[in-house]
């Protein structure tokens, strides 16, 4: 009898141990019936809100070609940029015809033909572009990435041309059917007639003929804590071990994943080499997966734009660029610097799963900051500066950016010109 009682007691102990293990492994405190796999993490809302992918997909700038060699530029969050982009999103583009880029005389079109040129930097997959524009691509076109869209009118043509540039460089796709009239394009172009005039240098970059008006800001700033990052990235933050590296950086690991924190550079780097592959992976799916990951593991502390998706042999790196500014002055990218990483979010994916995640630990309180209107030089003053920095090489691009500067407990965002040189280097004009 005693042996039977002991057996029942032992069985109850084993059963209770299994139940307790279930709750420890598969449930979080306060949850009801949700089951979490080892690749899902505790969500934190301490860093920033979630964001829809569509709100991260927009051109870095618009070039308005007025004809007769005249041009102007509109940047995100400026008055006419918002108006034109909203209208173009409501138009449809169909029946794409593949052509060689050499079929067009772009220098002549740029100089003589009124038009709108949207720049997407290093490119955006067509599958993502479809989320913000009404495109009906064929099987060939939908596999492309697009870095420019050029909509223009030609003399004696009854319909405008809408040309999409492949990132490969030698191919363009022209929409045979576009829900736009010549009058529509001309109306959009006319918005630029009273704006700052720009002069182009071989179509590579554009120089404003007068100063550019922007905002300059100084805002209270701080750092996200290690505890915040741990709770966001680890299933059980209490199980992590602490390691201090020789270079002063701190590493937290649960034996599978690791979080490296460099407080001197205000930067964190997370790695999960054991993450299970999701299966089929495409450029567009990886970007959307990256957006979802940031939504679930930190959020977006400010305005961001999808910047690039770079594929290597084993993985893909997706980058989002921080922007600052407001209507009607425009929004511009925040410069990322070696000693002050503030402007970028990087994610690395393998087979559709995020395996690495890097971002700044710094945040700023924009609502509590002070802003003032300032100007970047243009015209001959700017050209003189460009001549100095471009000795021995060419200039491939020029655009305004914000340089972040730490001032005690504040962060100052100072407008500067960023120059991209033909040798691949970049220079800021203070």
TrEMBL record:
Coiled coil feature spans: none
Positions of the Regulatory protein YycH domain: 3-420
InterPro entries the UniProt entry points to: YycH (IPR009996), YycH/YycI_2 (IPR042274)
Gene3D superfamilies documented for this protein: YycH protein, domain 2
Domain of life: Bacteria
Pfam families linked to this entry: YycH
Protein name listed in UniProt: Regulatory protein YycH domain-containing protein
UniProt source species: Paenibacillus stellifer
